[in-house]
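Our working data are protein records whose layout never changes between entries. Getting from the letters to the C-alpha cells is the skill we practise here. To make this concrete, we reproduce a full record directly below:
***
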Amino acid sequence: MQSLSETSFGPNDSVGDLLATENLDEMYLCFSLCDEEYAVGIRQVAEIVGLPRIMAVPDLPDYIRGVINLRGKVIPLLDVRLRFRMPERAYDERTVVIVMDVDGAPIGLIVDGVTEVDEIPAAQMGRSKGLSQRGAKSAIFGLGRIGERIIVVLDASVLTSDCEIVMADVATASEVPT
C-alpha cells in the first residue's frame, strides 16, 4: 500500500510519474464517500484538482453538477455521492475532482476526498456479480481486500454511462477560447 505522501500524488498532481513506474492493472486511486472507501483504476485518472467554480448546465440529472473549464477543456462533473443516491453534503476544502479519461472523453468525479493509491492484486479482488439490480449493469467492478479493509472498486465506464450524451456534447465544444 502506498499513501499519497509516499507517491507525492495529491490535488493538482499528474499521475505521469506513477504511470511510468507501477503495475497499472492492479493500481487504484482510493477516495472516500460517506466514510466508506471507493476506488477507480489508475489508468483512467489524468489528475486530481481542487474543486473549481462549477458552471451549472440546465436539464441534466441532479448528479451531473455542471461543467468546469480546466486549462481550456470543458469537463462535465459527476457528483459520485449523488449518483449513488447518498445524502448530499456541502463541498469543503477536502472535496476534490478526479479528472478521468473515460472511453476517450474527459469527465470529473466529485468525491469527498482522495486517500491513497493502492495496489489490489487480482487475487484480492472479488467480482461484483450479484451486486446490481436485475438486468442493470453495475457501476461496481468488484470488492477489493487490503488487509482488513474492503474497498468498493468502481467501473468508471458504467458509472459515467448516463453522462454519454453530455460528454458527446462537451466533446464537440471541448476547446474553450481563452
Observations:
- The longest strand covers residues 27-33.
